[in-house]
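Suppose a colleague, Dr. K., hands you the sequence of a protein chain of 157 amino acids and asks what its three-dimensional shape might be. Before reaching for any lab equipment, you can write down a predicted structure in token form. Begin with the sequence itself:
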Amino acid sequence: MKNWLEKYKALLILFAYLGCATLVYACLSENNPMTFLMGLFFITFSFFKIIHLKEFYASFKKYDIIAKNINFYAWVYPFIEIVLGLMFLTQTNIPLASAITIIILLSTNIGVIKSLRKGEVLECACLGVVFNLPLSKVTIIENNIMILMAITQLLII
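The predicted structure, expressed as tokens, is then:
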């Protein structure tokens, strides 16, 4: 357990910060805190990818099924996250943002599951290469939470 906590410490701290910001937002605003959390998530995670874009590209291309087949997709992915983040934060076309979120994260999940089943030991590109996180079930859980929130947005709008 201690080894797991050490490995995912940065990710856990980041989620705690995002959760606290969302809680404050929920208390002070009448807007949807779920879309706020999703927006913060995408903006924050894109930041870490853009810091070392070339390294993110190389890492992401190893497992994402769209990035494996469409070369430029891994280059633009962090910028797609920025656009999605802004859409969620500004409450702009939430159905479209949710649909895109579902598609891109399902693509990533399929690639992660395939890589894990093959026994590949890869670095997770979710926080770029700033933090050395392994590709694992945690990646799938993280993506599934975002997918479930996106589905929820489609159901409530």
